[in-house]
Design goal:
The chain is mostly helical and 121 residues long. It is 90% helix and 0% strand.
Length: 121
């Protein structure tokens, strides 16, 4: 039980640091806070709600992992190295893919609500 408690404390310390110092994480935390009530009204059922919020959580997860890769790379060297560039670019690609996935999930659920507004005129 003590190990779980210590892991939780470490995780909260990391969340606190990222929320204070990392702009992308700050933006995605705001997106998460906004998505919680919006998804409630958009979702047809609990599964859809969990999918909508889960998509934002997944994006946040990938952003946290990308930030950890960048921090580790910066700790190794601030000089240009091809391997470090590849690692950082791959992390950035992961965030892009997660962003596209998140946007697709939200677009799929929002489309039935927006479509009548677009095509009614």
């Amino acid at each position: 039980m003590e190990r779980i408690y210590k892991a939780f404390i470490n995780s909260m310390r990391s969340l606190n640091h990222l929320a204070r110092h990392e702009k992308p994480v700050q933006q995605e935390l705001v997106l998460l806070l906004v998505s919680l009530p919006v998804a409630w009204f958009v979702a047809a059922d609990m599964a859809a709600y969990l999918l909508l919020v889960g998509a934002v959580l997944f994006l946040l997860l990938i952003e946290v992992l990308n930030t950890s890769v960048e921090a580790a790379c910066n700790a190794v060297s601030r000089d240009f190295k091809k391997d470090i560039q590849i690692a950082k670019d791959a992390g950035s690609l992961a965030v892009l893919i997660a962003s596209i996935m998140c946007a697709t999930v939200w677009a799929y659920h929002l489309w039935p609500l927006v479509r009548p507004l677009i095509f009614s005129a």
